[in-house]
Amino acid sequence: MYSLRFFLFLLLAFTFSCQNDKATESTSTSIDEVSIRLAKEPGQISPFFAPTTIGRHVYQYVFLPLADYHPETLELYPILIKEIPKGYSHTLEDGRIAMAFDIEFKEDAQWSDGHPVTADDYKFTINMVKHPLTKAIKWQQLMTNIYDIKVDENNSKKMTVYCNPDYMLGLEVVITSYLLPEHIYDSASQLDLTDTTQTVLMDKISASINERKEIIQVGPYVISDEATDEYIILSKKTDYWGANYPDNPFLQSNPNKIIFKVVPDELTATTMAKDGQLDLVELKSSSTFLDLRDNHSDKFTFHTPQLMFFYYIAINNTSPKVNDKNVRRALAHLMDVDDAIQTLDKGLGVRNTGPFHPTKPYYNHKLKPIELNIEKAKTLLDESGWIDTDGDNIRDKVINGKKTQLILDFVITGSALSKNIVLLYQEGAAKAGVGINIISKANSLMQKEHINVLKYDMAALAKGFDASPDDPYSAWHSDNAAPGGTNKTGYRNPVSDDLIETIRNSSDANNRKGNYLKLQETIYEDQPMIFLYSPLMKFVINNKIAATTTSKRPGYLANTFKNKETE
To answer: What average pLDDT does the segment 195-218 reach?
Structure first.
């Protein structure tokens, strides 16, 4: 016969075991799957050849850079490397002074086929980008700032990278690069920057633009299934080396699967979210977002991070009608931006007064937003010689000996937002005797036929930002103001040019800040575009998920999502 004490022991043991099972179950962070809406098909999945905004939603879990900006602190954070390096001055063999960075990859970092990640992969990638036959054009200009790469002879995980000491983003260029696996390309070690006949090798590299399920990369997920215009399924890697770094947000893989569903129609996406078919939906419509927040808080959590992005109305500074800064200032007074935020985004937006995002530490908060003031606009137009001489309610002026009406070609993409912006603007412009001729085209055609060649007067556009410090050279320097350049407004000012050159030639953030502030003041005075507002993003997330969002594009890291029931 067993004693009563023995039975009590068994009962306590059984109870403790059950409690342990529940505790283990309750602390699990894994989720079977997370379904995310994409508004359109992302196309190629490659940060090298197709660094699109929509593609970023997907490739951030497949590709990884050496380091990136932490989603919470927005400070550089090591991913594939052990630590963020500190630069030091070094004289190269050819006599050039360089900024040197000693870098070491994590010992356990490896590709999805099991090969270790090495400094040779980095050197191969940078040479690929710099090669004259490359198709990674967006990266090429940046990588010209890297002078040389020396791989440690005794440790393939170590290297020293030498870069332009005067370029403001030297460190960022060196450590935020993605990688290509050298070992899967034939004759990779023979990649020669001076050899323009290496077409076979470069064509093989460029062909990776179309890879999806075949991608060999270092991220925590692989593309396991996909159907164009329908879905992309990411599956977490088994025995992933990144699991050794549970606090690193870029290496986590809490959901077993991340399923991206292409759902162009927002109403359909909302219905699918209500039915549990989508766990995360990014909405454009503030009305829909607020309706869900007011009536379905039992099903969803609602997130409104201020993404690094803003809307603006570009003004072609080379157009004879608007090349006078007083005219551009008058045009700015014709837009009621505060009303636009309320009307178009139900108040979910923040005014912007200059070329940088309000979240940046050097944003000039002292600049006062230009208010709607029809009378002030009329006065400025009068002073610039734009008068209604024939009583038809449209101002006119003699330009190059010809009477010219102040009717401006305003190009838009045809999206609901751009249509609403131009209609609101047209209403204010009419009150000041300014005519608006609306031209609606697909974005690709608008860019090709109008923006890129400076054949427009005004245009409704948007600009996205990264967490890195802004280099204003591309968008604002006179060097890039000709048709076909990257200065899309054709803006020119020697004062701003000097400030831009000083900014980009300083690696010290404290030294740059004062010049950033002065540059914003100069641009504000010239008013080369009408700065509108930065919209708050509108994420609707299923209540079963514990999720955080970030101002870093695209606004979330789905690999960090957890099961809320276990929180």
So the answer is: 81
